[in-house]
Amino acid sequence: MELLSVAVLAFVAVRVGSVTARVVRDDGVRRRTLALVRGVRWRHVWPTPFLGAAVLTVASVLLLVPGLDWGWWSALGGYGNPVTGGTEATVGTMLEWLVPLVFVLLLLPALPLFAEAEERRFRFGAEDWSWGRRLRACVTFGLVHAIVGIPIGVALALSVGGAWFMRVYLRAGGGRTGLLECTRAHLAYNATIVALLLVALAAGGVA
Question: Could you tell me the residue ranges of all domains in the chain?
Answer without folding.
Answer: 2-206
